[in-house]
Amino acid sequence: MDDNCHVEPIQKVTTADEQKNVELALLAVSGMGCPNCANRVRNSLLSLYGVVDVYVDHAAGIAQVSFNPRIETIDDLIIAVTRAGGDGHHEYGAKLLATALTSPVLTRCSCCNTSSSPTQRLKDDSRYIPVLQ
User: Fold this and answer.
1) Which residues contact residue 8 at a Cβ distance below 8 angstroms, ignoring those fewer than 6 apart?
2) Which of 67, 89, 93, 97 is the most buried (most CB within 10 A)?
3) What pTM was computed for the model?
4) Neighbours of 91 (CB within 10 A)
5) How many Å apart are CA 41 and CA 75, to the nearest integer?
6) Taking all residues of the chain, what is their mean pLDDT, rounded to a whole number?
7) In angstroms, rounded to a whole number, what is the distance separating the alpha carbons of residues 54 and 11?
8) CB 70 within 8 A of CB 21
9) 13-39 pLDDT per residue, tens
10) Which residues, given as ranges, of the chain have pLDDT below 70?
11) Which 8-state DSSP code applies to residue 8?
């Protein structure tokens, strides 16, 4: 990571329309090497109207995206991940791993700081729908 790599995470205030019919997509993200890469991918996804919340883990290579599928598509999410790079130093790619029909944001549990992976927490969720490949 060089001195020009630092990326501040953006904050987003979502609209009522964005928050309707929220679904969860779990993406495998390639090319991330540090927390700044995760912020770059997160910021790009959050810049999409229709994306409500994003959790990115650069070490695990995953992104959890809460979004309104009536506004944004899975393909839009994948394009946003790719768009986060492309500066000659950072190249990212994404592939859909799973979707869930509705979801609260599945990040670390604030009461017990659960350390299970986001992928496992998603699989443990009864609303989990694996994507056949």
Assistant:
1) 39
2) 67
3) 0.75
4) 12
5) 15
6) 81
7) 11
8) yes
9) 989 999 988 999 999 999 999 999 999
10) 1-4, 101-133
11) P
